[in-house]
Amino acid sequence: NAGVTQTPKFRILKIGQSMTLQCAQDMNHNYMYWYRQDPGMGLKLIYYSVGAGITDKGEVPNGYNVSRSTTEDFPLRLELAAPSQTSVYFCASGGGLNTEAFFGQGTRLTVV
Amino acid sequence: QKEVEQNSGPLSVPEGAIASLNCTYSDRGSQSFFWYRQYSGKSPELIMFIYSNGDKEDGRFTAQLNKASQYVSLLIRDSQPSDSATYLCAVTGNAGKSTFGDGTTLTVKP
Could you tell me which chain A residue has the CA closest to the CA of B88? Predict the structure, then answer.
C-alpha cells in the first residue's frame, strides 16, 4: 500500500536554485493538493488539481508551478528558490468532495 | 478574513476531561468539513468528516456542524494523553478546493 509518495524527504537549496518536488498516488484519486506548513502554523494551499490536465491556484501560489499530465502524478516546481520558501511541503490526494485527503510523508525544504 | 479560523489555543485539559475545538469558515458554499490530527513531525491524519448539519459521533469523538452559523466543532470525550496533538480543521468547497485552519494544539495532562 504505497498511498501518496513524496520525494525527496529532505532537501537543502541555495537561493536562486530550482527544483521539483515529486508526488505520486496509486489510489486513482482525482483530487490532488500541495500544501506548505511553516513552523507552528497550519497548512497553506499552494495549488490543487481536480483531475488530469486541470490545475488551479490556492492561497499561496507565488513562486511555484504545477502540472498534472496523469492522474497519478502532481509535481510541484520551485523556480528561483527564496528563504521564504523554507517550509515542510505536503502533497495530498482525495477521491472527491466528501472523502478525506491522504497525505504523503512531507518534504522538508531549507533554502539558504 | 481567513477562510478557515480555529480557536488559537494552546488548549490544555486534564486526563478524562472533555476537550472542545472550534472552527469557523467564511465560504457559505463549503460542502464538507474535516478534522485532522497531526503529531509533531508527522503528516495529518483524518479523525472525522461531516457534511450535514447536526452531530456525528465516532467513539470518543463528536463533530458538530452548523452551516447557518458557518461553524464546526470537535469534542473529544475522556481525553487521553495520546490525544495530545495539533488538530486541524479543513473545509472543502464545491470546486474541490480544500483549505485548512492554523490548527489548535491540545495537551492532555495525566
Answer: A42
